Amino acid sequence: MNEKIYSQIRDIKKYALENKVPIMTDAGIDYLTRFVANHQIKNILEVGTAIGYSAIMMALSNPNVKITTIERDQERYMEAIKNIKKFDLENRITLIFNDALDVELDDTYDLIFLDAAKGQNIHFFEKFERRLTGNGTIITDNMEFHGLVGQNEQDMSRNLRGLVRKIREYHDFLEKNEKYDVKFLSIGDGLAIAERKEL
Ligand code: SAH
Ligand code: MG
Question: What atom of ligand 1 comes closest to residue 16's alpha carbon?
């Protein structure tokens, strides 16, 4: 990557920090981009664009991939449009401004990356696995939620406790899902890698 690209990436990360946009950590994005670079992936669906950081990083890591990414927050969506233009990636990244649960897609995807509302992952998974190619992979971020998922619930507020329980439920849902080989990685904020067994 050249100096201009590096500096544009730094700008996006700075914006995220200043505006409290929860983009992936360096370790998380590093794993994800390696995955995208090292697998035969053509089509990616991302749920949770935010300002386009992870979509841009995935696109840069593999010149063959196309990405469709969904965001429901208008301000972030607008910022994502700007960022994707800066990298000239409009032809490889398609943005959808909507709640993911209301989006109907006809395409299929080799990789689905779930990085939106942490409490809705079972719904996202069940909705979008229909759009996964044969032995494609579903990667989910924030499985550890700043270490809270492994902690005692007693010290948590009611809201937080509810969210932590939902992440644990999703963890169990994945673990019990016999259609997928699943591994949980303590990388970044915690990643789940669910690879569908051959259909
Ligand atoms: N993937 C991004 C970070 C995403 S942060 C990156 O690493 O660069 C999570 C985003 O998901 C937020 O911007 C939030 O607005 C969005 N989101 C949460 N629930 C959603 C839903 N149901 N539909 C669409 N977007 C959603
Ligand atoms: Mg995340």
Answer: 8
The set of protein residues with a Cβ atom below 6 angstroms from ligand 1 is 22-24, 48, 50, 53-54, 70-73, 76, 99-101, 115-117, 120
Give the Cβ contact number of residue 21 at 10 Å.
17
Atom of ligand 1 nearest to the CA of 21: 5
What are φ and ψ of residue 18, in 5° steps? -70, -30
CATH for the stretch 3-196 = 3.40.50.150
Distance, in Å, from the CA atom of 128 to the CA atom of 131, rounded to the nearest integer, reads: 5
pLDDT band, very low/low/confident/very high, at 37 (cuts 50, 70, 90): very high
Name the residue among 152, 153, 187, 149 with its Cα closest to residue 168. Answer: 149
**Rounded Cα–Cα distance for residues 175 and 101 (Å):** 23
Record the tokens describing residue 164, joined without a space. 């932590």
pLDDT in tens, 96-114: 999 999 999 999 999 999 9
Q: What is the rounded CA–CA span in Å between residue 88 and residue 35?
A: 23
For residues 124 and 128, what is the distance between their CA atoms, to the nearest angstrom?
6
Per-residue pLDDT tens digits for 130-171: 999 999 999 999 999 988 888 888 889 999 999 999 999 999
pTM assigned to the model: 0.97
